[in-house]
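Can't attach files on this board, so I'm pasting raw text. These are the components:
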Amino acid sequence: MKSRQLFSLACMVPAVIVITAFFLIPAVQLLFIASGGEAGLSRYLAVLTTPRYRDALLSTVALSMVVTATTLLIGGIAGIFLARNRFPGHGLLVAILTFPLAFPGVVVGFMVIMLGGRLGLVGQISEALGADRIVFAYSMTGLFVGYLYFSIPRVLLTVMGVAETLDNRLIEAARSLGAGPFAIQRDIVLPALVPAFVAAGSICFATAMGAFGTAFTLATRINVLPMVIYQEFTEAANLAMAAALSVVLGLVAWAILALARLRGGDNVAAAG
Amino acid sequence: MNRLAYALALFFTVLTAAFLAVPALMSMLAGVTQIYARGIASGLTIDWILEVWRLYADTIGRSIAIAMMTLVVTLLVGIPLAYAFVVRPSALTRALNELMTLPLAVPGLAVALAMLQLYGNIDWFRRSSLFIVAGHVIFTLPFMVRAVASTLGAIDIRTLEEGAASLGAGPLRRFLDVVIPAAMPGVLAGSLMVVTLSIGEFNLTWMLHTPLTKTLPVGLADSYASMRLEIASAYTLVFFIMIVPLLVAMQLVARSKSRKGMSA
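---
Top answer:
Structure tokens for the assembled complex are below.
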């Protein structure tokens, strides 16, 4: 029995070494840098009082909330529909809708350029219709479209996973009691999917908060928090401020995920 | 469901799929079109892909090498950890699990910044691809551990081990001859996930790379910023070609796993 316990402890040693060396120690030191030096903890105050940082924080939170709400709506409708109906082409639709899961943020940015860039599809169509050439890729709108692009597959998969396990007998029972399709959705399907929405929504929000690649491709001038951190680090060479902003960004993202997990949503997923 | 609601929901779902598929298809087409602004009528060509090969072949090779090294480390570190999580859950394993998944909640930029300020001055490490591998391991390890732990949890590995133990096998022997073979489906699913994530990783890698350690996504960002649309598209096409087999394999593994789950 003793040797068993020792063996399972030994099994954890390599992981403890790797995580400590490449995450724990660096992260703790980053915390010290963010709150060290002359400015100290006042750097965190600066995040809220300096207009550039505060605006970036607020617009990142606002963008993430709008993206989350829109994605839950789109992914919710498509996810419930695909989970509850089978038809020819069903597999293809699911494959198309989940394919972008593996796209890095930079590639998603390029997809937005294909749609709304200078040679983009929307511009070509709007010009063919006799209007001005519409270019939206290099702005907050482009960022919104890009975040939708990488969020929809994640939300869709989570919603589908739960909707497929939904107990059909409940729906049959409701129908036999005279409930219409709308009432069934409202009173049975949606309440059963609340944990899935909480989990998917929190992942979506945290991912949007930290997304860097898409903004990087579309425009370095867009004032979202990850872009500002990057500029502080590279252009201003202000490691301490970049560190403080990273800590704030990390805390917001982590807090949202932790809060959602308390409500029962299992939301471990990769942030893009 | 009534017919109108069904038709509307189907239309909406197809529209959503089009939103995701159309730009990808356009970019694939642009990668093999002579002059994109003049459309497909200007003729098809593979010149842009050859140009990508000439400019960026090294990033493709390096991304594959980094993904393989990341895979080896996550296997060596992750399988024993998953085993410990399943066999002896305790406050310690729960804390370790929390710490391990934290890098997924924290944006990659912050993780990279933390690594840079600690290891940035260790010159040989900073300049080697191993620096990127370290970042990718931190980012992908949770996926390997989850996949393996869920397989081990589902087959009741403890009972299997009791059997081997009663026949006189020691812990290491049981780990190699019983646990690892039993964990294989999870190991396969986890490996595909780790390789796919590593090949596509940008947020960490952009901060950790040097001009001599550019990966595929770093090269993509570079081409989006400075190359003509056709070259950027051809490069993206190469990326799609690399990633699609991995995604298909992942779906097949997931499907065969759920089928086994149903028959059990």
